[in-house]
Amino acid sequence: MSNPNNNANAAAQEEDDAEMPSGASLNDAALDNVVFAAAYQSDESSMDALDQAIQAEEEAEAQNVGNSLEAGAEVEVEAEAEPEGEGEGAAVAEDDSVADDAGNANADDDPAADRRSATKKELTQIIDKWEQEQTQNGYDPVPTLRSLAEIFEREKDSYMRKDPDPLDLRHPYRTDPSCQYGLLLKLLFRKDQFMGKLLNDYLRDNYFSRQNMSRSSLELNIIACRLILVVMPGLETTAVFQTAEEDGIINRLYNWAEDSIEPLQSYATGLLAAAMEVSDIAITCREQNMRLVPKMINRLHLLLACSRMSKNTTIAEPSSSLNNSADSSFSPGMLSWMACGAASAPQSPQHNGASGSASNMSILFENSRDAFPLSRYYKRMYIPLHPPTADTSQMLIMRFLTSLGEYQEFLAMAFGNNVMGLIFGHLEELDRRDTCLAYEVLKYLASLLCHKKFALEFISRGGLELLLNVPRPSLATTGVSIAIYYLAYCEDAMERICSMPRPLISNLVRYALWILGRCHDSSKCHATMFFSLSFQFKAILDEFDSQDGLRKLYNVISVLKILDPSHNDSDNGSDINEDVECASRQMVRHVCIAMKRYMEAHFFYKYNNFLCQHYATSSSSSTHYFSQQPTVAAKLTFDQLHEQLRTLQEHTSVRGHWEPVDQLMKLGGITLLLRIIAFSYDWVNSGRSETVRSALDVLSVCCVIPRVYLVLCERLQMPDKTTTSGFCSVLGAAAGEITADAEVLKSALAVLCHCVCSPIIRKDSGSSSLMKFANSSRKNKANQKYAEELIEKVWESVCSNNGIVVLLSLMQTKGPITDADCIRGMACRALAGLARSDRVRQIVGKLPLFASGQLQALMRDPILQEKRAEHVIFQKYALELLERISGKTKPLNNPLDPSLTNMHKANVIAQTRIQYNEQQLYQLIFEHLESKGLSQTAQMLQREVGLPLQTTTTRSFHQSPFDYKGFAGISSLSRSRLRSRMQDVNAAIMSSSDQNRSLSEDMSPHCSSSIGASSSMTGAASTTMGVPNFSYLSAQTPIKLRKTERATSSVTRSLQKQISLANVESSAVGLPDELTISPALHPKRVTLNSIVTEYLTNQHSLCNNPVTTCPQFDLYEPHKCPDPRPSRLVSSNYNLTSRHFRTQAGFNTARFDRRHVHTHFAPWRTMRSADYDDLEFTCCDVVGNYLIVGTHQGESKVFNMNDGVEQFSSICHTYGVDAIQANRAGDLVLTTSLWRLRTTILWSITDNEFRSKLRLPEVGYCEFSQTTQDRLLGTHTDCAVLYDINTGSKVSTFTPTIPNQYTKNRATLCRTDELLLSDGVLWDVRSSKEIHKFDKFNQCISGVFHPNCLEIIANTEVWDLRTFHLLQTVPVLDQRNCTFSPMHVIYGASLGADRDHDMETTTYDTSFNVLDAYDYSSIATIDVKRNINDLSVSANGSLIAVVEDHSGYDSKQETYVKIYAVGVKKSERSEEEDDEEVPESNEEGSETGSDTGSDNAFAIGPNFLGFPLRSHRNRNFIDLDSSSDDDNDSDMDDGDDDDDDDLEIISNVDEIDFEGDASSDE
Fold it and tell me: How wide is the angle at C-alpha 1206 spanned by C-alphas 1201 and 1208, nearest 5°?
């Protein structure tokens, strides 16, 4: 709002300025020394013609503004609001236009470019002249410094006209690279010698004395301070003033600021203000500041009073009086001020008495009057340092006080010297054209508002109304943004603000929202932080929503280029520099925090409304307090927030609406937040963690509305023009890929938990629901179906983005140690929610974490003992996860050992029908009665039940069920294990019996009588103690008695013997409400049948292999289920005689023969790199009788395996050959080099030469097709390309929609070339369509096809191609490449070619594993005692070639290509001398053996074209049984001709005459 009086006064002032002569001379008589006049005099005479033209133009603009003021005040407001709003709100656009002008300047040779060039040249000449003359005796640096000061003041004036951000502390050149001011600063600071003199020597008060010159240094000090202040934006204050403190310059500045003449006093105060920004200096100079601060505050009071009196005098006098002398203008009011100023103003040595102080102050006001018409346009932008004015002095003092305002020790001085009144005096009746001094005052105010006492005092005195009256747009608006930000920090102050009238709060929010849209970036940041701190107050939150604040907050970052996926294109890459990008990231950070506080505040009040609706009777709850006290801050902890989120999810309809979330989705805010998370991978700013965490927290709150899940499943465009889903970004944050901050991990896991654990059936009943929903049954059914489809889509999206492996890794995390238990619990909860999917449940159940009992080890103890509460939560969700995987519906009583095996045993035992001979029970009762002397009762029982006549009963002694299979020395550990198993059994029994409880209770007529009899015998104590009643159980139903909490001193013991008392609370974790009812409400009796049944059940639980169907239990003999018979097949595996006998009997023993053969490998031929000069072998491939070897020098060599002689070689790559592979015909070879530029080359071999046929750049792995081998399959990172060998063209490209991003992806084809596997994605080769994406459980190996074309082996996981189910895991194959042999075995080895080239991170493996290709059982592990670089198998599988290397610090690296004979024992000599070759006779025998089993092998031809037809790794592999089961039937069914061929190969190999006999083992 504008004040008409102020506008009128401003118009009158403009008229006076227009009539004032521009060349008014200074009154030199008022000065004491001509030196001072020289220090501050104006250099108007030296201005060039261009500057005069600019001034004339500015005066013309000012005159136009004055005319508009005369026309009307309202017209002025509208006229000035628009250009200044553009000047401040669109600073970036203005800078861009200036930059464009600068770019076109050189082309057009405009006058501005010439002036900039002339200024730069002038500066260079001045510095060069100074360097030449400064060493001369009697040199006077004052003219040089004055010239430099004038140049920089002129350029700073031009720079400030662009309206830069006043809070931007960067170098002007970084702020605007096109500005001349920043360029000149860079040139000046390159002159180290000059800057050293300026900062060290020219600030000394005895400079000329040290130069043996009888002259005062005061003028030099003044001009030096002036120059330092004008170049301060380019000065590193920390380094400069720390050095100045050592030299005593700081003390000198204090002396000048405290007692000196103007303008040295003001300039010294400005330098001290910059020095006090360094906290170390401020602490060191605490005593000086305590003395100087009160003087500066009093000086401000004097200057403010003088300014008001001068202003009133100027307004009162007619405009013609301005032509009078300067003394007459000060006569009425200024003389009285001078008189009072003599007592308080500091006195300099040259100024004595009132006349001296008056002269000192009169300089400032005289310059203020004379400088106003000259700098009136610029004064709106900044306050000039020269000529020094009253505003200049007040500005520098304000900066000094601002730097000390946050220190507590100066707060008392602020109150004691009435700083509040000083601030109010400056902020009242502001003129929108001149708010520069008000901006400095507001900065000082903001530094004081960090003190709670001052903030409350400021609010109570009406300071908020004063802030809101600051005109906008203006420079002071930036100061208002800082002030309201500091006000929001004080909760007490905000509570008082929220209790003020609603119009005032509305104006406050409107002012802050205006700043969000039209001010500098720094002002926007402060306004955003103000909202983030004040959203917790409902009054602010409601007003923010009423003024459409969320849209305005969203618009702050929606237009940023860093969030535009196309901003990094080649056309737009130059539009964003590093500083702009950094500032944009900070803006994103503040807006994300504000959105987080906004959503959490709304959620807080919504949840309290929900509680009010559901629990209206609880008047003492906090919900009524917050509903009645809207000024109280709303706060929630992380755990409280997410616990309440779960509650609201259960009571929210699947189609529910919530206004804040709906508006955010309408604006596209959810997508923008996901884009922020995805883009933050490449950000390196310090606030990245907080940005990502805030964005995730917003998404977490929004997950109350299920429609948000759909946005998370949608695809987002990334800066690299790829697409990703929202869940991919969330999972990346959870995996620690963005940042390892534990808070980010927990926020990401919270989002996953709220999505994948979202309830399918919701309690949205009638008016009690929080959100809107439909009530009809038809709509409820539709909502139910929609909820199922929605959650299935969420599960599929999470799984397709490798969510299972992320959650599994987080469940096993151990750091950070303070948050590991919480992270484990949240990850386990998310996986338990995900396990509701049948697909996930099938996969997870096969993983080692569950199948091998690893989860039980994690459940035993927490990572940190102080975090046991979080560990209990982890145990709770781990049990829930195990229930879903195992199919159990009730939890276990013993949570420490709930393995799947024990759970299966417990279920089997619980389903067993316990039967026993009742006659044996009667006999035991009879003997008991006889032993107690109750003969008549015993005889009566004998007659009624028909017991035989009493005879001496002989029965075998056996231990109690608790000591079964044990002896007198049984350990307590065995008892503990027994007790753990029994608790599992009893839990399973209870779960099976609960379903019949309601029907069986109180059904039999004798139940009540039994209860009465029991109560008469045991009294009331047994009833109050809650002894379980098992009368509802039938005679065949197993039971379990649970120990209840003792209520009295009497002891009630369970029939089940307890080793240690289990905690009732811990054993009941996760129990439903119906099972936690006190047993005292439903008393149960112990019957003889229940005792016997439990006794027999305990015996049954001790069986190692319990069965469901058992014969009648014998009460006299211990029970034991039969153990499975040992397999004769397994026992005959290593017995040659047994295998031979079974073969004669018609059994197929080929598999066992194969297992026996592949336990022995003997070295047959060795090629050493030491036999060649500077050669290292890297890879190999066996082709018939030849061996192709790649070297580290880029060479490929061909050896004859019979004699080990090199046939020929060729240079294939500039760097090492990392992979080599030949086709079956042997006329084509693929070589791959991964160093520097990945390249694969196809070579044709003709006349013993390698000839290049096709070069495939950027292909890291390549292989031939399997059938006709006329095509190549190349791997480009995460995509696969099919090439035609004949034409060299691309046939098809396979790029997955959602890549797994395996680090060592290798695309491969199945045996029929119909299917393709690349990056864990299965493709149809013909249609080039994705079939299925397999879940990722490792980072490196993408997988290979099994030769049976029914399975895929991906690291340790074996997948079924028909159902895409996980069949099993093979831990032996972890991080090992699979090489298939035609003899139905798999060789797994960690090859050197698959390792990283970084030697520091390389881990070598010296062994390879041999596995059965049918059931993946391990056959042998062969240790070659050297690092394995590559492994290749011959066509018939009887030979394998291994590239080994031996490297050590004390020996030279040497590599070998060693060929092993399969099925041959190592000789003693070969074990002792592993590198020595075997005799020649062995070679011939081995040659015969290797060729016998291959019909395609033939003698060596005259050239290499005679390569025999071979199979690549898995050629001629026998078609395996489709079920891949390892049972006897499959063994008999696969007895085909190929097995006979295998036997023939084995027998021939065994006939070779090696030194060690390999014919038999036993």
Answer: 125
Q: Can you say how many angstroms the Cα of residue 1051 is from the centroid of all Cα atoms in its chain?
A: 55
CA angle 358, 362, 366 (to 5 degrees): 165
In the chain the first and final C-alpha atoms are separated, in Å, by: 107
Interatomic CA distance for residues 706 and 761, integer angstroms: 13
The three-class DSSP label of residue 923 is helix
Angstrom distance (rounded) from CA 350 to CA 219: 14
Question: Closest by alpha carbon to 1226, among 1542, 1488, 1515?
Answer: 1515
- Alpha-carbon gap, residue 803 to 1031, rounded angstroms: 49
Contact 155, 183 (CB under 8 A): no
Separation between Cα atoms, residue 121 and residue 127, nearest integer Å: 10
Amino acid at 238: T
User: Quick check: 716 and 703 in contact, CB under 8 A?
Assistant: no
Distance CA 142, CA 195 (A): 15
CB atoms closer than 10 angstroms to residue 592: 27
User: What are the structure tokens assigned to 617, written together?
Assistant: 């009777």
Token output for 1401: 């991170």
Q: How far is CA 1459 from CA 553, 1087, 1229, 1431, 1456, in A?
A: 71, 75, 20, 10, 10
HSE (side-chain half, CA atoms, 13 Å) at 402: 22
Q: Compute the distance between CA of residue 70 and CA of residue 11 in angstroms, rounded to an integer.
A: 7
Give me the residue label for tokens 């960067």: 170
Give the Cα separation of 1524 and 1416 in Å (integer): 10
| Run means of pLDDT, 10 residues per run, the chain, 1562 residues | 40 38 35 33 36 44 40 34 36 38 45 82 90 86 92 90 88 88 90 88 84 84 92 84 73 89 90 91 90 92 84 53 38 38 36 46 67 50 85 92 92 91 89 86 94 94 92 90 94 92 94 92 94 93 94 93 70 66 92 95 90 63 50 79 89 89 94 93 88 95 93 85 88 92 94 93 55 60 88 93 93 90 95 93 88 83 90 92 77 53 76 85 88 88 80 45 39 47 52 42 38 37 36 36 35 36 36 39 70 87 85 86 70 65 77 86 89 87 92 92 88 91 91 90 90 91 92 92 92 91 92 93 93 92 93 94 93 92 92 52 73 92 90 92 75 82 77 46 35 33 34 36 39 39 38 35 34
Burial of 1501 (0-12, 13-18, 19+ CB in 10 A): exposed
